[in-house]
TrEMBL record:
Keywords: Glycosidase, Hydrolase. One of its GO terms (molecular function) is hydrolase activity, hydrolyzing O-glycosyl compounds. GO terms for biological process: carbohydrate metabolic process. It comes from the Bacteria. This is Arabinan endo-1,5-alpha-L-arabinosidase. It comes from Cryobacterium zongtaii. The record marks 173 as: Important for catalytic activity, responsible for pKa modulation of the active site Glu and correct orientation of both the proton donor and substrate. Pathway: Glycan metabolism; L-arabinan degradation. Residues 1-40 are annotated as: Disordered. InterPro entries: GH43_arabinanases, Glyco_hydro_43, Glyco_hydro_beta-prop_sf. The active site is at residues 39, 229.
Length: 482
């Protein structure tokens, strides 16, 4: 199997090229960066380097290498394509599905009874890949293992398989979550009968019960083509519950990310308003709390159909810790990044990957940055700023999949926040702070929000941003001066 090139050709220096990408020909893979990546997951190696694994895809390319595309980065911002993890589609997966390439890989550091060090010899990585053809549910999820993210990867065959006309499920889009007791679970599914989860044998990485296709945890009705896929579950110790991310609608033009929570990994998962993710009778557009959709800030690139996300959890990065008046328990010591693909509104055939900082509100709900991550150093504010001044914000209406242009708004601390009459104007230095905000003046919309620093890609400068949720489950996000 492939051993990946460890060099990073063509790396831009930090601080350079911090403008949004625009559509461009496929070109040389050495110049792709995050272009052409689809259905991504990012993990960090024992040496501190990050690897991105993604679907075998390249818009407009004459030929696409098969075997799971791999990129490498030292800063989560600049990425270099380094090859494929496997030499094509493994035999058993191809025989089952006739897939020409592999989709939606999930790569995890496999839990072991004891891992004494971070040495490569003590680490095992599992990669769960999908093999299928578009629109078919004759699909397979396979397993490959390696001691290094750079490979070589050894195929271990099919883990879960479904066949059209026999099974209601569709065995693609795998994601792995370790539950509160330490048991790994495989979550999968796309369209058809929905999203399923099942426990894995910690020793083998295969289903605890051979042939088990799992428990349904989310689904959508035929009226919307049962359009749900790309699920990913995070266990949050802080709230002692599970957070389900999934993508609704069409990957080509209307993807959007929804979230729901549950006390147990098998559900039931409910959104902020209490709607069940398995409800087939309610309005399907209003089930699941929408946290990311198509949008544009000013004259910047319009981003269409963001989705199929994974979540990267990192120890707090420099410059992103909680503010002086916020506690570690309030904002959390870990940094969360939503890793997702997105299309250019000006040419939806082309797609790129973005990482967006992801936060949890006072009520424990995830919210997403309006701006792709540019690195902690680039995003650092020169001086603390107030909320006063021009903002642009997006309301992520759950009933619509249309691209939303950011509107000019005012942003202020909500009047429900008690502030002494003689207190000085509140300043924000960009470190993460939970706060209740009002968007749109004194009689505007109140949000359970998080304020943080970001990179304003439209104006190429660091800027204060917010992201939050209304009491009726509608997400807003915005950037000061964008």
């Amino acid at each position: 199997m492939s051993v990946l090139d460890q060099t990073l050709p063509g790396q831009a220096r930090p601080g350079q090229a911090l403008r949004s990408l625009t559509p461009a020909p496929a070109g040389d893979p050495a110049d792709w960066g995050t272009r052409n990546a689809h259905d991504p997951t990012v993990v960090r190696d024992t040496d501190g380097t990050w690897y991105m694994f993604s679907t075998d895809a390249a818009a407009g390319a004459d030929a696409v290498a098969a075997g799971v595309h791999v990129r490498r980065s030292t800063d989560l911002v600049h990425w270099s394509f380094v090859g494929t993890a496997l030499d094509g589609v493994p035999g058993p997966a191809f025989e089952w599905s006739q897939a020409p390439g592999l989709w939606a890989p999930e790569v995890v550091r496999w839990p072991t009874a004891a891992t004494p060090t971070d040495a490569a010899s003590d680490v095992t990585w599992h990669m769960y890949y999908s093999a299928s053809t578009f629109g078919s549910s004759t699909s397979a999820i396979g397993l490959a293992v390696a001691s290094r993210l750079a490979g070589p990867w050894e195929d271990r065959g099919i883990v879960v398989a479904t066949r059209a006309g026999t099974d209601s499920q569709n065995a693609i889009d795998a994601a792995v979550t370790v539950d509160r007791s330490g048991t790994p679970w495989l979550t999968y599914g796309s369209f058809f009968s929905g999203i399923y989860t099942l426990p894995l044998n910690p020793a083998t990485g295969r289903p605890q019960t051979p042939g088990d296709l799992g428990t349904v945890i989310a689904r959508r009705p035929m009226s919307v083509d049962r359009a749900i896929e790309g699920a990913f579950i995070v266990y949050r110790l802080e709230e002692d519950r599970y957070v389900l991310f999934s993508s609704y609608d069409s990957l080509f033009d209307s993807y959007n990310v929804r979230v729901a929570v549950a006390e147990e990994i098998t559900g039931p998962y409910t959104d902020l308003l209490g709607h069940s993710m398995t409800d087939l009778d309610a309005d399907p557009a209003l089930i699941g709390t929408k946290v990311l959709g198509s949008h544009r800030f000013g004259d910047d690139t319009g981003w269409l159909a963001p989705g199929h996300n994974s979540i990267l959890i990192e120890p707090g990065l420099p410059g992103t810790s909680a503010g002086a008046d916020a506690t570690a328990s309030a904002c959390g010591a870990d940094e969360y990044f939503m890793v997702h693909h997105v299309r250019f509104a000006d040419d939806p055939s082309q797609h790129v990957v973005q990482l967006r900082r992801t936060f949890f509100t006072e009520a424990g709900w995830p919210v997403v940055s309006p701006q792709p991550f540019a690195g902690a150093d680039a995003e650092r504010l020169a001086a603390p700023v107030s909320l006063a001044g021009p903002w642009r914000a997006v309301r992520l209406a759950p009933e619509s999949t249309a691209l939303v242009n950011a509107d000019p708004v005012t942003v202020a601390v909500a009047p429900t926040v008690l502030v002494p009459a003689d207190a000085p104007e509140r300043l924000f230095d960009g470190r993460t702070e939970r706060v209740r905000l009002v968007v749109g003046g004194a009689s505007g919309t109140e949000l359970d929000a998080v304020v943080f620093t970001s990179w304003d890609w439209a104006n190429a400068r660091p800027a204060l941003s917010f992201s939050g949720l209304t009491a009726d489950g509608v997400a807003w996000f915005g950037t000061r001066g964008a």
